[in-house]
Amino acid sequence: MPVEIDIAKVASLARIALSPEELRRYGDQLGAILEHAERVQQLPTAGIPPTSHPVPMTNAFRDDVVTGSLPLADVLAGAPEAEDGYFRVPPVLGDS
Amino acid sequence: MSDYEAVIGIETHVELMTRSKMFCGCPVAFGEAPNTTTCPVCLGLPGAMPVPNAEAIEGILKIGTALDCHVADTSYFHRKNYFYPDLPKNYQISQYDVPICHDGSISIDVDGAATRIGITRVHMEEDTGKSIHMGGGGRIHDAEYSLLDFNRSGVPLVEIVTEPDIRSAEQARVYGAELQRIVRTLGVSDARLEEGSMRFDANISVRPTGSEVLGTRAEIKNVNSLRSLQRAVAFEIARQIELIESGGTVVQETRHWNEESGTTTSMRSKEESEDYRYFQEPDLVPIEVSAEWRDAVVAALPELPAAQRARYQALGVDARVAGVLVATDELGALFEEAMAAGGDPRLIGNWLSGEAVAWSRAEGVEVGASPVTASHLVELAAMVADATLSASAAKQVLTGVLGGEGSPAEVAEARDLVQISDQGVIAAAVDEVLAAHPDAVDGIRGGDMKPIGFLVGQVMRATGGKADPKQVQQLIRDKTTG
User: Fold this and answer.
1) Which of B305, B320, B296, B300 has the alpha carbon at shortest distance from B185?
2) Strand, coil or helix: what is B186?
3) Which chain B residues contact residue A73 at CB under 8 A?
4) Same domain, B247 and B151
């Protein structure tokens, strides 16, 4: 049985508008994926270290050196609207 | 009010003053034209890859070890997902379940009582861009549109979270001041509250005194000075107590501190709790801090404010004075220099924290910008030691030196404050006073010592305050009882 999930909440968190039909379809699909994850969780994994990164590498840092920035025209090239060097966006409720 | 106890935790964000940003080579610069210090990484353009700045990791390790934290052998970056225009990737790179530093503490001193404030975690993240809300009289909710500047986006940001160990507005302020001083001493940030390179959020709840259950908390934002931190916390504690007393309930919410009105107001009531869907940042590998690295950071730590205060107190400087000297760079520097030149710690500490600070406030001039030097202070202390100046005259001389009247010797001379060293002159003044007050003299001879103080005062008056009061007292005793 697929796992029941609140697909409407997941969609709203991701800012994706879904029709009732899509909610049902993706809800089933995501449920099946979670069900698979549940099966994986039942495997005996004690003693196996978590593998978040497939490459055994740590501390990939860079030196604190300024390498430069983009010209303003390039920065704003993809902006739907700009004003005085700023990106201009619709008003947003809430804190910053 | 004493029926309630406040429970306060503080989250502090500190921008690190590295040369380049956290994950890209854009400069960390202030006051630049909008969006001119940005690149694909800090603009969140698709495909851009972050690479952590080693110096920022070094900086957070300094802060963590200075706060006596455990350093995680291995820690990870996470993505904190939320939507806001000043966050172009729609996630902030932060840390989640394994912060780089955790479980530390800081000791603060309020009215002579030392309190330990637990540090839950110190983690590494990146700053967001800045929004300017336009139209609607500047109010966020009425804005017609917003302008975005991403120069700040990606500046290394350290978040420092306390345990809910703070119990008063005063403790909150002292904690904030101590943390600011530590960060500045480490040299990792200028920690300027008014410019936002250090920012406080306070979580506040109240509960009946003696209760172990936590009340519902409100989070206060927009506190941009130590004074407003104290005011905002005090206001919020009073608001919550009043609300409960009048039968209401505290709502979990974010509240905005308004500096002008001195009040907090609700910013938004959340329809649902925050769900940031943290997951490990796949573009960044884990951070591993070896014992050698940690030891090297600890070994390179400068003297921290608490140790500096303790050192001053060991020299005989009292606790309050040591606090003032350590809290103010220019006073601390003058004091250190004067000590190195062999000055009297107690006298010089008291002058700097007393007369010099008072003069600075009255004149609106920083002590560091006045002509006073460490050698002036040493000279002045020597003049008190060899009785050239009385203690009170020395304070007047110091004020003159601060005001640019010259060296201590010149000011003492010009203001006619040098104590009379001619024994004959003092003896004559004593004789005159004794002759003018035969009743007092008879009293002393009869065993009543009380008039001595009065007679000393008379001699001091007659000599324009320039006699050494101890010497005068001795002379009076000798002449009346001898």
Assistant:
1) B305
2) helix
3) none
4) yes
Instruction: Tell me the per-residue pLDDT of B139-152, one tens digit each, with 9 for 90 and over.
Output: 666 778 999 999 99
Tens of pLDDT, residue by residue over B74-126, are 999 999 999 889 999 999 999 999 999 999 999 998 877 889 999 999 999 99
Q: Which residues constitute the domain of residue B465? A: 423-481
**Distance to chain A for B235, nearest Cα, Å:** 21
- Mean pLDDT, chain B, integer: 92
When divided into structural domains, chain B yields a total of 3
Query: What CATH topology corresponds to A1-45?
Result: Histone, subunit A (1.10.20)
Residues B42 and B172 in one domain: yes
Q: Is the pTM of this model over 0.95?
A: no
B437 touches chain A (CB under 8 A): no
ipTM here: 0.88
A:32-71 residues touching chain B, CB 8 A cutoff: 52-53, 55, 57-70
Distance, in Å, from the CA atom of B424 to the CA atom of B238, rounded to the nearest integer, reads: 66
The per-residue pLDDT for A3 is 66
Does the pLDDT at position B229 exceed 80?
A: yes
pLDDT at A33: 92
Helix, strand, or coil (residue B101): strand
Per DSSP, B469 falls in state: H
Looking at chain B, which residue has its C-alpha nearest residue A62? B53
A62 with B25: Cβ contact below 8 A: yes
Tell me: pLDDT of B312 over 80: yes
Burial of B139 (C-beta count, 10 Å sphere; 0-12/13-18/19+) = exposed
For residue B458, which of B476, B443, B477 has the smallest C-alpha distance?
B476
**Sheet bearing B91-94, strands edge to edge:** B91-94, B78-81, B279-280
Q: Does A15 touch chain B (CB under 8 A)?
A: yes
CA A54 to chain B, closest CA, distance in angstroms equals 10
- Residues of B within 8 A of A68 (CB-CB) are 25-26, 39
Q: What does the block give as tokens for B46?
A: 């698709």
Asked whether residue B258 falls in the same domain as residue B195, the answer is yes
Burial class of B465 by CB neighbour count within 10 A (0 to 12, 13 to 18, 19+):
middle
Query: Phi/psi class of residue B54: alpha, beta or left (left: φ > 0; alpha: ψ in -120 to 50)?
Result: alpha
Q: Do residue B35 and residue A85 have CB atoms under 8 angstroms apart?
A: yes
Cα B53 to Cα B25: distance, rounded to the nearest angstrom: 9
CA-to-CA distance for B79 and A35, rounded, in angstroms? 24
